[in-house]
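Before the break, one more example. Copy the sequence into your notebook; we will annotate it together after we see the structure.
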Amino acid sequence: MNKYDSERIAAGLENKGYKPASKVNEADLVVVNMCSVRQSAVDRVFGLPQKLKKLQTKNHKLKTILTGCILKKDRKKFFGNFDYILNVKNLSSWPKILSKTLWTRGLVHSSIAKSYLKIKPKHSNKFSALVPIMTGCDNFCSYCVVPYTRGKEISRPAQEIICEVKNLAKKGVKEIWLLGQNVNRYCSKSKIIPQNAGQKSKLIDFPKLLRIIDKIPGKFWLRFTSPHPADFSEELIEAMAKCRKITPYLNLPVQTGDDRILRKMNRSYTIAQYKNLVKKIRKKIPDICLSTDVIVGFPGETKKQFKNTVKLFKEIKYDMAYISRYSPRAGTAAARMKDDVSSAEKKRREKVLTEVLKKTALENNKKYFAKTLKVLPTEYKKGFLSGKSFHYKTVKFRGSKNLIGKFAKVKITDAFPWSLQGKLK
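Here is what the structure looks like once it is written out:
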């Protein structure tokens, strides 16, 4: 979502006459788009003002903006370190604010969010695009700051999303990601943004939206992130199984393998329900590749409870997992709990899970040996291309740089835990 916001910021500023600077020391305006999910990300931003102040002594025209997901307590600390702290959803008003030297605070009304989403983003490339279908979150997981930084769930009108995807497909975009903090909660009746004042938007749910987008002409892959297990319906599984453009890849965050810790995290499902969901998904989509998000060292997590997470990893056999060491986020319910798992123990638990994951990922990747996969190359380095397959596997192979952004057929010659290697067919 932050990457997508950056694309809109770039477009919004360029629409007002700004041009991208090739180097930071050539810039008249520096925008820092912040993420607050982890404390380490916030700490990196705290290290920037001193560097920017040095640049301002050489270039007196230089102005600095801090935007993105910012907690109230952090906003106060950043006050004075940046020339402006602006809400990204108020992007259309930035030029006016910059010219008048105003200061803005707080969350914005959904009508402002509407105008912000109307700005066409400057996509970082021509072959892959991010399309937000909603923003904000109402779940209030005890460790997460998103509800406090992005506000309540707001869904975009379906027609607006469909129109954006159609335009991307016409331009030849090969990969489209639908985004939302809780993407499968799309289109709650009370939280839809009206297309125009006084006009009601047609309400459809997420599975229906997927089915409509799947019928849009064009050769593109459709992916989405990030769903919540508690809101994953039978209809959504059916849509994923039937829609040909939807790729057989799913990030299904579990966060922990222990029910008591799940309750402390305010996650509204049990491990038994999660495993039953995985079973249903795999029955309908046998070749699905599963990844997950997990937190180790959550307050009060015992070694025995952590072993339940290890057990779950061995049972589910994930293709990938994004493992985070718990860090307190101010303002959340978990921040009031005692952070009683040592840093060393968190590192150990992360290592244990990584080793389990490495084995299951390698086991899963070996299934692709000698098979020919369709790959979308996105990077080129020293004669080798790297990209993602239909199943979201990282594939590396030798090839020409002009293949970037074009589908390629690659025969797999070797398998590793985190990637596959092959040769062009």
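Confidence is low (pLDDT under 50) at residues 101-114. The longest strand covers residues 372-381. Try to locate both features in your own notes.
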